[in-house]
Specification:
There is one protein chain. By secondary structure, this protein is an alpha/beta fold. The protein has a five-stranded parallel β-sheet, with helices on both faces. Strands 6-5-7 form a three-stranded antiparallel β-sheet. Helix content is 47%, strand content 15%. Helix 2 packs across helix 3 (43-50). A hairpin with a 5-residue loop joins strand 5 and strand 6. The chain is globular. Bound molecules: adenosine monophosphate (AMP). Adenosine monophosphate binds next to helix 2 and helix 3.
Length: 214
Amino acid sequence: MIIIISGPPASGKGTQAQLLTKKLRMFHMDVGRMLRKIAKKNPKVENLLSKGKLVPNKQIATYLEKYLKDSRVKLDNIIFDGFPRTIEQYKYLKRWLSRKGLKINSLIYLDIKDETALRRLSARRTCTLCGSVYNLITNPPEKNEVCDECGGKLVQREDDKEDVIQKRLSLFKRETKPVLEMAREEGVLMRVDAERPIKTIFEEILTKLGVKDD
Ligand code: AMP
């Protein structure tokens, strides 16, 4: 199965992708996380990310293909998280999949209000070592500012600061919403109200995917 999980920043893409990955034994292709790793060695990418700008489409395609090849991933069982974010990326993904005899089964759109994104992101903390994500209100670490998984330091991402969040929200509306519209026309869009608790959202996704939750 090939699933895309999309939505504005803080809609819970990573969280739902992780739950789905576990349940359906899929590969979680977290493009934002991949880019944050690349950014540590590439100042140009670092600069784009810290400003909340998109990495150019061609560059993303190159990184993605290399990453999937190096990870020896089974290409027919992937959740794409944070990709595609533009119509060009969407078309590229469809072409790339079709050359391998594959197609997108579902594009899950986690829908939240701008106010919710802002509220959630101001409480989000990310581990500088392993990339684990916490929320100081809904999912705090056991020890203040320390990652439960690896003991790394928890920080607020540069792009989770308010002025950058506003930019990321408008980018989502301008660049990514047209992707959702195209997916709707193609009959693969699954819109989910993501203002609700994590478990409720997950159950709805499983039901809509036709997977039994036992
Ligand atoms: P995320 O962790 O998904 O919120 O992504 C963090 C940042 O990585 C974004 O704000 C962009 O700067 C960059 N990024 C992630 N996915 C893409 C993509 N598909 N195309 C271009 N840039 C991306």
